[in-house]
Request: fold
Amino acid sequence: MDEVWNQKNSGKVEKYIHSKYTIHLDTADPWEGKTLTHLEFKERLQHSFNAFPDMHFEITFAIEEEKHVAITWILTGTNLGVIGGFPPTNKKIKTNGITIYHFKENLISGHTQVFDRVTVAKQLGFVK
Amino acid sequence: MDEVWNQKNSGKVEKYIHSKYTIHLDTADPWEGKTLTHLEFKERLQHSFNAFPDMHFEITFAIEEEKHVAITWILTGTNLGVIGGFPPTNKKIKTNGITIYHFKENLISGHTQVFDRVTVAKQLGFVK
Reply:
């Protein structure tokens, strides 16, 4: 989360991410249900970084099992690029989410995620 | 989840729920941030059962640590009562969520939860 997402260092993808990365659940994510290669994972990163160049995850809580880690997080960022077909709003977002990371061969092989999209839609002015 | 929420048996609250139950995170839940007594927990149950008398949680995945359990679930139900100040829509909902249950003295002492409210708002016709 810190090196890849917060520091925007896509060069670290191979270090942490399995070459087959499955997005088990992530509603409205264009890649939901798909299994991504490293290249596709980097494209997905870039898609997010374009929309929110300063996006930052603060991990607030974590629990772990042998093959899984669940984290709660607060995402902040400024919408400076296209998202969901909408032009940039220049507005700031702050929202909560929970992600379960799945591990395979000591690498992160996928995730199951839900986050508070209502709050984001309100902050960007898409809904009242 | 099965006995209390799915079977709507609020008599089982004392068996599973700590007398101080804290809702750490549950956006838009009227009780978010509060610590509930058993009586208040039952009132919150009734609030949900009134809105969705047939509400049902299907647990799809779980991971556990000593003092915490994270579960992913699918909630289904029919909106036959007031919710968020809106009259009943008679519409069905189906949505995903992740809950982390916190344990204390072998009882569930609280939760941290995020669920897909956008999908529910669309299914009830509150947003397009």
